[in-house]
Amino acid sequence: MSEVSLVRCDTYETGVLEAAVRKAVDLMGGMSRFVKPGDRVLIKPNLLSAKAPEKRITTDPSVVRAVTRMVLEAGGKPLIGDSPALEPFRRVAKKCGIAEVAEDLGVELAPLTRPTPVYLPEGAAFRHLEIAAQALDADVVINLPKLKTHCQMLFTLGVKNLFGTIVAQRKAEWHHMAGVDRDTFASLLLDIYLAVGPALTILDGVWAMEGNGPANGSPRRMDLIAAATDAIALDMSICTMLDVPLRSFPLYRVARDRRVGETDPGRIDFKGDSIETFAVPDFEVPALDSMGFLPARFDWFTKRYLVSKPVQEREACKGCGQCGEICPADAIRMEDRKIAFDYHRCIRCYCCQEVCPEDAILFRKGLLVKMLNWVHR
Ligand code: SF4
Ligand code: SF4
Fold it and tell me: 337 and 273: one domain?
């Protein structure tokens, strides 16, 4: 039976936060269960972009600090690393407060580099993957996701956080290969999770992000630190906590069908504070529309008329070009700060919206989402 620990914590103040993280890990057997003296330990926070911790886009530095201290106490040799898609790692780490943690504790801080092939078994989304060597070479990986919504995948939690072990802009290539089908992308995420095999996932949900996540949503207090060895069980726990139907979460559908991890919240052994006490009944999650409900030959029709599409907010755009750089489908052209989207090429991956520093890309709701909203009113 998978175990998930839930600990209430209402502040990032160092002493209080550290006590909560220790409690969550102790409920899972303590750090020495996972880290042995001399182990090389990759600590993988969410470092999506160079934003201050108060934006709640990245894992809070106090969580990274607490976990790094515990790894050092257990005799491990920590490396704090991630691979932001566009911005230089060191700039992101500095702005997010992680560089200061590494300096204070005298530990290595490094971008994840050197894409290394990993061959996958039957049933995987692809025959092989390319994952950063540092993630594969580590004796232990500790995964530190942020609790956030995600416009393409509903949430980015324990499993999705490991997409950061795909090196920099290669993320866009894998997005493109997964195409328009969310379940194929969820299956890819599952394969990355299995290949990296984190020993422990510790979720920063003290402040979460709701709405237009993972970069342009609104901060929302959840007062939660959670830990699990099975990140799938942890991700399902968050859906349950927020009263989100599991079938609407692409990762649930794929993990259940492939029988990976615990997808049944009724079979999870919860430790610590009661899950009911973390309920946020009005937590805002994005409405997802599906590309895959009609045969592929109708893609042009579903794309044009039914599913949401990216549009530019011209007044907000500063013309930085990052959206065009990240677009895996080469579907963005820019002239005089006016973006032309090629909606035939666009795979609705939401990467352009995710990287836009000005919140200048919106997704205009498709007919499907409008109908869903109408049904739920
Ligand atoms: S235009 Fe935006 S949503 Fe469409 S493929 Fe490019 S990055 Fe993805
Ligand atoms: S839409 Fe956003 S990412 Fe694209 S050019 Fe404008 S400001 Fe930059």
Answer: no
Amino acid identity at 20? A
The domain that holds 155 is classified in CATH as 3.40.50.11440
Band the pLDDT of 135: cuts 50, 70, 90: very high
Residues within 6 Å of ligand 1 by CB:
310, 327-329, 331-332, 341, 346-352
Give the tens place of pLDDT for each residue, 255-271. Answer: 999 999 999 999 999 99
In the numeric block, which tokens belong to residue 55?
Answer: 């934006």
User: Considering only CA atoms, which of 151, 148, 156, 145 is closest in space to residue 220?
Assistant: 148
- Asked if 223 and 358 sit in the same domain, the reply is no
Q: Of all atoms in ligand 1, which is nearest to the CA of residue 351?
A: 7
| Tokens of residue 227, six digits | 């830990």
Who lines ligand 2 at CB under 6 A? 312, 317-323, 356, 358, 360-361
Range of the domain at 312: 296-376
270 to 51, 225, 228, 244: CA distances (angstroms): 33, 13, 10, 18
Gap from CA of 331 to ligand 2 centroid (Å):
14
Is residue 265 domain-shared with residue 357, that is, in the same domain? no
DSSP state string for 196-252: H--SEEEEEEEEEEESSTTTSSEEEEEEEEEEES-HHHHHHHHHHHTT--GGGSHHH
3-state helix, strand, coil in the chain (%, to 5): 40, 25, 40
Compute the distance from residue 316 Cα to the ligand 2 centre, in Å: 8
Considering the domain architecture, whether residues 356 and 226 belong to the same structural domain is answered as: no
pTM to 2 decimals?
0.90
Structure token digits, residue 289: 């529309």
Residues 143 and 239 in one domain: yes
Of ligand 1's atoms, which has the minimum distance to the CA of residue 332? 1
> 293 alpha carbon to ligand 1 midpoint, in Å?
20
Question: Does 289 reside within a domain?
Answer: no
pLDDT at 348: 86
CA of 56 to the centre of ligand 1 (A): 24
Burial of 350 (0-12, 13-18, 19+ CB in 10 A): buried
